[in-house]
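Carboxypeptidase regulatory-like domain-containing protein: structure tokens wanted.
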Amino acid sequence: MFWLPVSAQAQVLRGSAKLVGDDRPLDQARVMALLRDGRSIGSAVTDDKGRFQFRVNAGGKPFAISITRIGMEPTLSEEITIGVTDTLEVNFNVVETGIRTDTVRVKSSPSFNELRLTEARRRGWRVFPPVEVEKLRERSNSFEDLLRSTGYPGFVVPSRRDDCIRSTRYNRCLTIVLDGIPLSGSYPNINPRDVYFFALLGKTESAVQFGDRTPWGAIVIYTRAKGDKY
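Answer:
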């Protein structure tokens, strides 16, 4: 539950996530604060007691809180506007179909992915939209297969799972950005049927969006939410 109303002023989000029914802590869940364009302005992963804490830099803009974990449908809160003076305590009680708090009903929001897609197109990214992804993913056994199926020449997909996807132009590893978070280290095992849309960002585009976390370009992936058309 939210111990403070969503209009409260804050600079830190902290709290915990538990499963409804037996109060077991929800560990290894990713909690993110996301702007309308899908950019993350703060995130954390819950510990073995389901606790999390992170700072938010919203710049006065409204954002939503997302909580995801492998095997769960992504869920998203209503938009929140916060200031920079207090701490907001956020305690989630997680159920299979969503999250209920004292002040908001948190649920998957198909319109949020549509906003992300619109923003990606506005920025001029090379977007592989949901209608195209839907056709490709049914015959793909992995995300790498999905990329190969596009036939797009801007990236090189390795034959070995332990190698990286490379930029054709620079022959350097592209960073995977999953639901707004640049990932480091080994690539995640992404089920192609979980992909809503993805986009290829060049070196300059990715630097503008994600800074030095994506030095040679990025593949930005957004996963499907409950209610998405594709």
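Confidence is low (pLDDT under 50) at residues 1-9, 96-110. Residues 110-122 form the longest helix (13 residues).

Cheers.
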